[in-house]
Task: structure prediction
Amino acid sequence: MGGDFIVHRIGPDQFAELALSSKAPIRLGERCTVFMERDVNSYMQRGAEKADLVAGLACSVVYNYINRVVRGRRIGKCIFFQGGTAYNDAVAAAFAAVTGKQIIVPPHNGVIGAIGAALLAREQMKQARGPADLDLADQRPTPRGDNREGQYVRQARQKTSPPVSRFRGYDLSKVSYSLREFTCNGCSNACRIQEFTVEGNKTYWGDKCSERFRHRTKRPVEPVTMDLMAMRQEFLTDDSNVAQPPTGAVTVGIPMAMFAYEQLPFWRTLLRGLGFATVLSAPTNKEIIQAGQDAVVAEPCFPIVVAHGHIACLDRDDVDHILVPNIISAEEIPSDVELHLCPWHQTLPFVARSAPALTETANKFMSPQVHFSDGPAAVTGELVRFFRPMGLKRSKIRSAAAAAFEAQQTFKRKCLTAGAAALDVLKRTARRGVVLVGRPYNIHDPGVNLAVPRKLRQYYGVDCIPQDFLPTGDVDISKINNNMYWSLGRHVLAAAKIVGENPNLDIIYITNFKCGPDSFVKHFTKPAAGKPFLTLQFDGHSNDAGIMTRCEAYLDSKGILRPRTRPQPQQQAVVT
Result:
């Protein structure tokens, strides 16, 4: 809302002038200004001075940054304020007032990042061209009898052509370029693409998957581990050992969202064992996301929106029932704390049922209530009470439940075995790996995370290890947090602790913008790992450009993109 307030009520040019004229800035808290519209409107209705409100917005930017980004870390004495926000003198003044320190706004503050990118490009060009002075690798000893015997002198060598810069200068009027817009029909996302042709070279923007048009330069180093993301998907969807339904069986649709990305083996084996035919919804795509956005009545997190879309699309597939279980607590693991899923996940069947667009669809819901933390016997009892009224025999339900638990355990064993092998390969090859932590439906749904995990491997040769390939159930996190009642949060912290015990592992935390539990868990992740990590938040945006830029910066800082080497001492032209 901050941008809306500035542009539509006072204009950007007046913001600093008004704010600096305030004698009593109104304290608006430390939230992002996007969420302050209600507070600002309330103050204006009560007659607050516009200057005091504007000054309060400037101060809120400062408090948000200090309390949520700096978070208690030491603030130095020489402070540079860069970026587009630094053009606002009021925000710079607010930083100075709050910190009590001098704030320096450097020249060209809005393009400091571009200048840094240019310096890095120049550095890479120099490295590609090689040193201008003598290279000892091209030296040869002089023949015997030469009066310079015992010395090494420069010999003639065949030179290779240095790389040529593609920089076209600053005057765009001298650059030949064109723009074409079209819709990509490569998949169901139907992305609107912009094609820029610059002197014969084409670049594309606007595609969601980056697969059809934009192909980034691959790092020459290939991963040394198996593709665990693809392997897990194969383990998850493998139904070769699941009973086949009889002809004409009642169909139950399983939305490939939320619970399904962790418990699909359990629920599909259970339903097949009870004689139902199962139908999986299509992978998350633009149509499903739009259906979810059209259906939700509140403002839940993005995965819940996606789940609404999967439910709506299954209804269009004309299945007889749709599985939307009421899962109260998660799997039983050694813990003194009862473990729960988040409230949105727990109440998914009730939230979806209340959506007007899904009123008739809700009549198809199959929503058994289960408490996995109570153990298999208790869950089996809950399933008997739910399915018995459908005319199913108690013995058949118990047998199907036992097979379902075994299928789930088999899936977990396969993941842990593959994970142990991957860690061993990384150790033997002295390679770094990146552990992906978060909720399974964020890590493993490419429609939610823009397939970033797959791109990390394909584009940069990163060895990615999802957290469910690590033995997180055996890790004691009580010293990090002795009351971690979020089940998936417990696994995140356990994975972080494993990373902390392995110097060759780093973390990328995949989450979504409105995840309340993750906003809490993230604060404990760094203490658990003992090292910085990258957080990627997904909220339905359709382009991965910004996300991949952040990934590149993080991987570079960890020495994965450009392995760090010790600088070599400068060599002399003649050595005697």
